[in-house]
Structures are given as structure tokens and as C-alpha cells.
Amino acid sequence: MLPQYHTVKGYGEHEIIIQKSRFIAYIDRAETEEEAQEFIQKIKKQNWNATHNCSAYLIGEHDLIQKANDDGEPSGTAGVPMLEVLKKRQLKDTVVVVTRYFGGIKLGAGGLIRAYGRATSEGLLATGIVERKLMRIMHTKVDYTFLGKLENELRASIYPIKEIHYADIVEIETYVKDEETANFNAWMIELTNGQAEITEGDVLYLESTISE
Questions:
Q1: Does pLDDT of 6 surpass 80?
Q2: Which of 82, 112, 81 minimizes the C-alpha distance to 95?
Q3: What is the pLDDT of residue 212?
Q4: How confident is the model at residue 60, as a pLDDT?
Q5: Are strands 21-29 and 170-176 parallel, antiparallel or unpaired?
């Protein structure tokens, strides 16, 4: 598992018009080639009457699965520039379909490359990009008398709260980098005068939106 990487937030779509042609970018996250193909077929079915449904996807930790499809546009003028946008932004597990409804004006090879690249770039901005960081989930159990203090301290710290469970005692789940667990433990013990029960949990990805 990669320590961190960038991908799209989820499903999104965005339309632009160039020389009377409509270019609609549909974007989603796909962690397998099957998921990517299913998404492409869904968009094609949805836009069955479109002139073209061009696609590209980049999948896997080391981008081992990558494909581009021009769907009838001149070779190399649609799918490849779309894929290049994904590579340039260093995105992983991402699939894009750009649907074109022809408006009657031919754009030429250069115009098509720019149009499909722009549709993809603007579609990504509209959808949103996230950074995924691998973090350890730390479980801190304390008496309710410490809850307010710990919650305030944590929300002002570098350790994001994942969830708080309310039972006989309170349990706070927190995202912590592996190299920070010792510091985190010491801090919790100090804040609770040694009353906290701290255990290490699973390793999960923490997602945060990044500005483009």
C-alpha cells in the first residue's frame, strides 16, 4: 500500500462548449479495470446518441493499468490527451469519459487534443482531488470527565478524530502516523494524568481535499 497518493473525490461531471460541440466529462474513482470498464459502459449507454464517448483510465499503485480510447475520433486526439492529463496530475485509480455531441464545426487534430484535454482538466477541478494518506487508527478510552478536554486538544492538533464512541466510558478513534504513535501515547497519558487506555488499531487511508 502506498503511503500516500492523489485520486478523485468521487463521481463528477462537467460540460464545456467548443465551436458548438458539447464536451461532457464524466469522472469517477475506479480501483480495478472491471470498475473502470463498467463506468465507461454505463456512460456510453446513458449517451447512446452521442457522436463519441472517449475514455481513459489509470489504475494501480504503479499505474500498471492504463488505457485510452478515441471511440471514432482521429487516432491519438482524444483518449491519449485525456490520459496525459491524469498522468500530469499524478492521479491514481481514476477513470474519465468525455462525451462529445458534434456541433457541425470540425476542430482539426490540434483542436481536438486541446478540447479533450481541457474537458478532462476542468472536469477534474469540478469533481475535486483528494490526497489519501496511510494512517494508524489509535483507540483512546477515557472517563467522560476527560472528554471535553481531549476533544478540544485533538481538534487543535495534527491528529484528526475519526469517530467518538459513547458507552460506559468514551472511546476516541484518532488518525496517527505510525512514526507519531509514541508521541501520541505520551501526550494522551499526560493530558489524562495516566488515566487513558490506548491501543493501536488498523491502518487506513485518511482522505483530505487538496486545492488545485
A1: yes
A2: 82
A3: 53
A4: 95
A5: unpaired
Report pLDDT digits (tens) over 90-113. Answer: 999 999 999 999 999 999 999 999
Tell me the pLDDT band of 1, cut-offs 50, 70 and 90.
Answer: confident
DSSP string, the chain: --SEEEEE-S-EEEEEEETTEEEEEEEEE-SSHHHHHHHHHHHHHHTTTSSEEEEEEEESTT--EEEEE-TTSSTTSSHHHHHHHHHHTTB-SEEEEEEEE--S---HHHHHHHHHHHHHHHHHHHH-EEEEEEEEEEEEEE-GGGHHHHHHHHHTSSS-EEEEEESSSEEEEEEE-GGGHHHHHHHHHHHTTT--EEEEEEEEEEEEEE--
Degrees to nearest 5, angle at CA 118 with 79 and 72? 30
Using an 8 Å Cβ cutoff, are 99 and 23 in contact? Answer: yes
